[in-house]
Amino acid sequence: MKLEYLLAACTVIFLVSCSNDDELPQLSQHGDIVGLNIKDAKYIYASGTNARSSSVQYRQIKKDGRDMELSWIDSNGDTVKINDLSKIWDLNKDYLMINTSLDINYRPLPGDPIEQRYGGYSYLIDKKTEAIYDLGIGLNGENAITDNKGNIYATDNSMGSFLYKIHTQDVANLRLEMYARASVSPVQFFVNNKGVCFYDYRYIRPSYGMQQFVISNFIPQTEYGNAFISRDNEDLYLTAVSGEYDSYKLVVSKLSEKRELQSQIMAEAVFLDYWGRPQPNEIQVKWNERRVTMLINVYGRTYEYMFATRTLTEIPVNLSGFFTKDYSIYVTANALYARKSVNKLDIIALEDYSIKELDLSAKGIDFRSIYTMDGSDLLYFAGFQYSTSQSVIGTIDIDGNVEITESTPNPITNIIQIN
Prior knowledge:
The termini are close together. The protein is mainly beta. It contains no helices and 35 strands.
């Protein structure tokens, strides 16, 4: 799963329903929780008028269209009602990750205080077997990445400054490794198929050993930058502003790892009116899937890196708003979407950077949740349709055409689609 596409690669979506302290779930008698009944699920959603209410229901829509409750599976083979589920992510073709505020198998004696771990509890769910695996720590699966061996990389869910690697080759003995520690929180990181990692806007860890490099080892006269991964997930690229005084340039460098980590300068663009080098998070990157190019934003100026010609060109459209780290920006294979209100979107076509506005107020639809699917041209959403008083699930294309694919009387507060 790619970093910025979850669900990138497959798209990562929140399903939030955090309980208040006075709404902690009541623990009932049942066998140990060993699974989650998600086999053949197409959608998982939270249903309720308030995503933070203890009355929220967790439901799923199966591939055959059945709308049914999402439930734990205990060691007796019985289904058990879910009362505590804070987040869920579709990590890759094999696993979901879920977070809870309580240990799913913790049973205090009467009068004992209920123990809660700072950062919560995280579990992997095998999509095929429905088996659940305790990771022993609270992790944030929003930007999780999977390498070509199936290992999963994710940050911790408490301070957000640690990057962990989940070794998944032996499912009976999953191993968690603390892979890197960052000083900038929350951690932004990139990992290619080989396990070469860029994090903290300046550090590089090879796939072997514990040695760390800094970005200036590969792009001289710079301190902070950013990175991106090639479409086949094999190559890690660095981008930074290099130089001093009144002579600065934007640089793209490609890393390669054989016996040692090396780099090759791929492209440069000279700044004629730029003073100073960026600080962390001041160089932002985003894929243009349609043109198969990388967009690099530096202080409001956007450059396009062409892989085929190894060139950097400034583009005429101001795209700085689409690089912000918020949940109102969505990227499909052919467009950038910016959510402006409960029923309005701006659409920028990645083919030619033309801009249009989509207004769904005339259709009587309000957005409740928006997400993307890796490699798809469509934007996906869950919303409420006033004319039918139904919750709806649908798609939007680059021309603003809306298609309703599912409807349910159950209110949808958030949703994920399962690959």
